[in-house]
Design a protein that fits this description.
The chain is an alpha+beta fold and 100 residues long. The protein contains four helices and four strands, in the order E-H-H-E-E-H-H-E. It has one domain: Alpha-Beta Plaits (2-Layer Sandwich). It is globular, with a radius of gyration of 14 Å. The mean pLDDT is 92.
Length: 100
């Protein structure tokens, strides 16, 4: 019952961003999260593309939400918000039924 957190970010403090991004992996581990995409060089096929794309896989939507709401991630979230703007989106995989 997979789920994914997709981050579409525009980093406006590239020198300071590693202060945040370097701490994220340790917050994912307790929730079974793993990076599938981390940064890269997005290429627009249609529409606008942010400067940075992140895709994190989780075993379930509940674990993804638990990670996002965890004390560990809440502690470093302001670092991202100070250095980048964008969206984080939680989506369920095809093997997970939609919430009613």
């Amino acid at each position: 019952m997979s789920a994914y957190v997709i981050g579409l970010m525009d980093v406006h403090d590239p020198e300071g961003y590693p202060t945040y991004s370097g701490q994220v992996p340790a917050t994912l581990e307790p929730y079974g999260g793993q990076f599938l995409v981390r940064g890269g060089h997005p290429e627009a096929l249609e529409g606008a593309v942010p400067g940075r794309v992140v895709v994190i896989a989780f075993p379930s939507a509940e674990q993804a939400r638990a990670w996002y709401e965890s004390e560990g991630y809440a502690r470093i979230r302001p670092l991202r918000q100070e250095r980048a703007s964008g969206s984080l989106i939680l989506v369920r995989g095809l093997d997970e039924p939609p919430k009613a």
